[in-house]
Design brief:
Blueprint lengths: L1 H14 L1 H7 L4 H4 L7 H9 L7 E7 L7 E9 L2 E9 L5 E4 L8 H7 L8 E3 L6 E7 L4 H16 L4 E7 L8 H14 L1 H13 L9 H8 L7 H9 L4 H13 L7 E4 L2 E4 L4 H15 L1
Parallel strand pairs: 6-7
Antiparallel strand pairs: 1-2, 2-3, 3-4, 5-7, 6-8, 8-9
Length: about 290
């Protein structure tokens, strides 16, 4: 239901390309005289017959487009939420969709949103021509499939591809965030142990519960150079939660809300593609990197 509304909004955006271009020439002060922000939700409910059980939240956000007021429209139901960017012109026109800065390279803009310092990395190092940043959830079955696929892909490129892991635990998975925190604790002690634990978590999703997670993590890392007591303390105190939250915030900036999601040399890819699809994208990025 929510997705249907978003498709309608995008249609509106495409139909209003000319008003958007013209509105950019308005002064910032004139745009402030438009419709009050609180009236937008009422209008949207009437215009698109939004059911009463779907809540509409509207909030004003910083605008990067001179002369337009930027707002975020969020639709919330018991099935989840969906948000959409929108702008108000001085003529009380509502434009919904996405804005694009044609003066900046989209891939470069994506890279600028990603922190690659002190993160789990495997495959190629400095010599790698392509960097794949994976945003994943240890409880997600599609992530498990993508993990195996990407591991094989990285090995096939023999050092030319570097894989970086980022945490994107979904709220629908009850132990995913705990697993992210635990794995980040392991990474603090031993980066190789992180990847070993990742293999274990993805391979044993069906046997792990929120209650047994810590025990499973300790068991999976007992042969690694990881101090078990220190690890337990880190997990219990959720010491690495800031790392996980920073990854979540980063994923949100990139527009990711599902797992697995990837950034391949700046190009965003969503979903558990098969090996041939990943390789096609990687090959394209290699050619572009020359």
């Amino acid at each position: 239901m929510i997705k249907r509304f978003v498709r309608l909004f995008i249609a509106i955006f495409l139909a209003l390309q000319l008003p958007l271009a013209c509105a950019q020439q308005q002064t910032a002060s004139s745009a402030q005289q438009g419709v009050p922000i609180e009236e937008i939700s009422t209008y949207m409910r009437k215009a698109f017959n939004v059911p009463a059980n779907v809540k509409i939240n509207v909030s004003e956000t910083p605008s990067e487009i001179p002369g337009l007021r930027a707002v975020k429209i969020e639709f919330v139901s018991d099935r989840g939420s969906q948000s959409q960017e929108a702008w108000l012109t001085a003529q009380n026109r509502l434009i919904v969709g996405r804005s694009f800065d044609l003066s900046a390279d989209p891939y470069q803009k994506n890279w600028e949103k990603i922190d690659l310092a002190d993160v789990p990395t495997t495959g190629g190092k400095n010599e790698a021509k392509v960097t794949v940043v994976e945003y994943s959830d240890f409880q997600c079955p599609f992530c498990s499939r993508a993990h195996v696929t990407m591991k094989g892909v990285v090995q096939d490129y023999n050092g030319q591809v570097k894989l970086v892991y980022k945490h994107l635990p979904l709220q629908m998975h009850n132990w995913a965030e705990d697993a992210a925190i635990a794995s980040a604790c392991v990474y603090k002690q031993n980066s190789d142990a992180f990847w070993q634990l990742s293999d274990y978590l993805f391979a044993n999703q069906k046997t792990i519960t929120k209650e047994t997670l810590t025990e499973k993590v300790i068991e999976a890392t007992k042969e690694s150079k990881v101090d078990a007591e220190q690890l337990k303390q880190c997990i219990a105190a959720r010491q690495t939660n800031p790392v996980v939250q920073a990854n979540l915030a980063e994923a949100k900036k990139l527009g990711f809300s599902s797992t697995p999601s990837f950034v391949i040399n700046g190009r965003t890819v969503v979903g558990a593609l098969d090996a041939s699809q990943f390789k096609q994208i990687i090959d394209e990025m290699m050619v572009a990197a020359k």
